[in-house]
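User: I'm putting together a teaching handout on how multi-component assemblies are represented. Below are the sequence lines for each component of a complex, exactly as they appear in our records. Could you produce the 3D structure of the whole assembly as structure tokens, so the students can see both representations side by side? Please keep the chain order the same as the input.
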Amino acid sequence: MLYSYILQFVPDRAEAGVLLVDIFSQLTPQLQKAFDSCLSIYCWLQVEARKIILEYMVKSNGQSDLAVRHSLNGGHNKAYYFSLLEECSPEHQWVFRELFIHGRKKEELAAQSGKDLAHISGILRECLLIIRKNLE
Amino acid sequence: MNIELYIQSGIVESYALGLATPLEIAEFEQLLPHFPELKEALADFEYHLELFAIDNEEPPPAGTRERIEARIRELPAMAGATRGGERKYRRGKSAGEYLPIEVSSPYIRVHRKWRTFFIAVFILSKIFLGFAIYYFLEYRHAQKHVRQLEQQLGKKEAAGAAGEVDSRAGRRE
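Assistant: Of course. Below is the structure of the complete assembly, with chains in the same order as your input.
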């Protein structure tokens, strides 16, 4: 299950496989934290895995070259959570991709797009509610 | 605090996907024990995320599981926990112990589709209980009626017998 989740960040299957091994080896000693968390085990795994993946992406190629490459060619647009946002506007997809896949901050997106922070927060909120709706 | 508005702000999704800021996380975790609606919304979203993950599952490259197991065995914490005792590792490749894991949550999770079934069972049980009480009362009432009839019959028989004795005595005289 986690492998498909990783693929949305790192589309190269071999590289995602290596990351999966890294993630499990890093998270296994922290398993108690999962039980202490308010999240379910799987969601905790996803959240922690994302942190490791984002770190890996930054380390491996400065500012997550992989993700940038795939965001440019639209590689993410139909993958995993993005399949739930297919009907959204490109702006919504861009905001969600930058925040979720690239781990960027809302402030950065606001500065880059020339919009205010509330606008970016509003778009993220809409994306999250669309995800919830499409999951149900 | 209007908890519905708070839920509609997308905080649950943000928290579950790891997009919440440390401040939002702290606030959410502080509110969570006090609002069952929040717990329910989180559990519901988590459940759907897990279903989505199952539906979109892709198998990892061959040998990944073995590599993960090997890496975990190399970890210092795991190496210390491994004693090579009587218990054999599931795949028989190495001997070790299972990690003790405590689950503190007092809740069990049941799929939503069972809700209709449980409601139907509950309603049926109430109907049967109603019937049981009704027929029990009917039975008691009938028993009482039978006893009354028996008593009346006994009285009539006694009166009939007394009348017969009187008539015989009259005839003798």
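A couple of points students might notice: Residues 71-77 of chain A have pLDDT under 50 and may be disordered. The radius of gyration of chain A is 15 Å.
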